[in-house]
Write a structure and sequence with these properties.
Blueprint (H helix, E strand, L loop, with lengths): L2 H32 L5 H16 L4 E6 L5 E8 L3 H10 L2 E2 L9 H8 L3 E3 L23 E3 L10
């Protein structure tokens, strides 16, 4: 009998249970905040902070559709300055739908309601226009997901 294998299996199950507990706790905290009298800005900031904490990221941005329904704008962030967010929204807005180089992960996640992972932004054409842009927060991995109420297509 391989007792070291059994110990590794128990440790792995314990790690998975701890991870699941932390994610469920975080979802519960966000749900409580969403159902309280908190402001939308505070809720979106909580979501950005929680996403960074759970995924061990240095920064995160929460984007919402603008009134024209043509672009996604950063409404809250973790790890990014207000000046950077303002510049990002003004100079490099996220277009909804495909453009000349394809469709970005945030747009695709928004439109389909499915998560999108780009493991290496340096080899994906849609990120080409960002080459050479001085980033406050340079990144090579992009994860985008959509938070949409069930049954809504907008």
């Amino acid at each position: 009998m391989d007792r070291s294998r059994d110990v590794r299996l128990v440790e792995h199950q314990s790690d998975r249970a701890a991870t699941l507990r932390s994610w469920l706790t975080a979802v519960g905290e966000i749900a409580r905040e969403a159902n309280s009298a908190t402001s939308l800005a505070a809720l979106l900031t909580r979501i950005a902070d929680t996403a960074c904490s759970l995924m061990a990221c240095e920064f995160c941005a929460v984007l919402l559709i603008d009134l024209s329904r043509q672009r996604l704008v950063v409404e809250a962030a973790h790890g990014l300055t207000a000046d950077y967010v303002a510049r990002y929204n003004a100079e490099r807005p996220v277009q909804v739908g495909p453009g000349p180089l394809g469709e970005g992960p945030s747009s695709l996640a928004f439109r389909t309601g499915r998560p999108v992972l780009v493991a290496d932004t340096s080899i994906v054409p849609i990120f080409g226009p960002w080459d050479g842009v001085p980033f406050e927060a340079p990144y090579r991995v992009s994860i985008a997901t959509s938070y949409r109420p069930l049954g809504r297509d907008d």
